[in-house]
Amino acid sequence: MNQVKGSQSIGFGESPYLISSGSVVGSKEAEGPLAKLFDMTNQDDLFGAETWEEAESNMQKEACVLALGKAHITPEKVRYLFGGDLLRQGIATSMGVEALQIPMFGLYGACSTSGEALALSAMSVAAGYGDYMLAVTSSHFGSAEKEFRFPLGYANQRPLSAHWTVTGSGAFLVGTEKSHVRISGVTVGKIVDYGLKDSQNMGACMAPAAADTIAQNLQDFGRKVEDYDRIVTGDLGYVGQDILFDLMQGRGYDIKTKHMDCGMTIFDQQSQDTHAGGSGCGCAAVTLAAYILPKVKKGEWKRILFVPTGALMSTVSYNEGASVPGIAHAIVLEHC
Questions:
Q1: How many angstroms separate the Cα of 296 from the Cα of each of 70, 125, 218, 228, 302?
Q2: Which residues on neighbouring strands pair with residue 174, listed in sequence order?
Q3: How far is the CA of 17 from the CAs of 83, 103, 118, 232, in angstroms?
Q4: Where on the phi/psi map is residue 64: left (φ > 0), alpha (ψ -120 to 50), or beta?
Q5: Digitized pLDDT (tens) for each residue of the chain, 336 residues in all
Q6: Which residue, among 171, 202, 203, has the nearest Cα to 285 in the 3D structure?
């Protein structure tokens, strides 16, 4: 029987399984440390399209097809699709998954969207609303720079605190069919706003939300840091990691030996000049699909806490001088 845990978490009695995944990335990711682990890479970041936005849609479609193909499941068997991206009105998702004709919920959690999609997929399966759910998200360096910062042709100088948006899409099939990875619980995050306004320092904006959600997960499930083999954040990067360690220490938790950040893992900071690290909806998603899940499947990691983080801003809020709130959602993944 499913149980409400503490104030923000759910523990699943009959855990949904993370059955399969698909990862698609661009050229810079294909030159990074995880290059050989992704399902599909493309040296043409347009992915055969004419615009960055259309390229992002193509990535989402390919990631979904890969995840479904690995499980030998047709789109008709998927009850609902939960998907999102960073673009206005979620056009990368709506245009990307249109051909699949799966009933869809469009989501926006900024870079935390993969966690939001996985949480809702798991909750829907655990509640008995369907045997298969599909979670997908994406980001693209070109479309994100155009949407939130400057078009690439502007060639502006990036501060050292800035992140490099990952060009990638990750898709996950969640369902009742047994696999070696189960989703045993989720902790839904709250919006946390420390009043920071620097959109070029998203690690600092997101770290408070990550600390809040991680601490809440430990409290709600009555666990210690040592109960997880890894606590994985989405894209805090090098700046955000230091802040996270300080905030967690202030709450009485030392996570330094257990922490991993997807934004610090997907790129080589020195050779690829990615400054604070990777970010974007695709960052946590493709790192989970290509690098983290295989370790859980093999039993190298028995239980991990996957915590994608998001900076909740828009072009309007930034131009009006508003602060950048953060949010983080936690997914408990266990080997079985």
A1: 17, 21, 20, 12, 6
A2: 18, 133
A3: 18, 20, 11, 19
A4: alpha
A5: 789 999 999 999 999 999 999 999 999 999 999 999 999 998 888 888 888 789 899 999 999 999 999 999 999 999 999 999 988 888 888 888 999 999 999 999 989 999 999 999 999 999 999 999 999 999 988 776 766 655 545 445 565 556 678 899 999 999 999 999 999 999 999 999 998 877 677 788 899 999 999 999 999 999 999 999 999 999 999 889 999 999 999 999 999 999 999 999 999 877 777 766 788 889 999 999 999 999 999 999 999 999 999 989 777 776 777 888 999 999 999 999
A6: 171
List phi, psi (to 5°) of 265. Answer: -95, -35
Q: Which residues contact 87 (CB under 8 A, 6 or more apart)?
A: 53, 56, 143, 147
CA 144 to CA 103: how far, in whole Å? 26
Quote the CA–CA distance of 303 and 181 in Å, as a whole number.
9
Report the alpha-carbon distance of residue 47 to residue 64 in Å, rounded. Answer: 15
Strand pairing class (80-84; 132-139): parallel
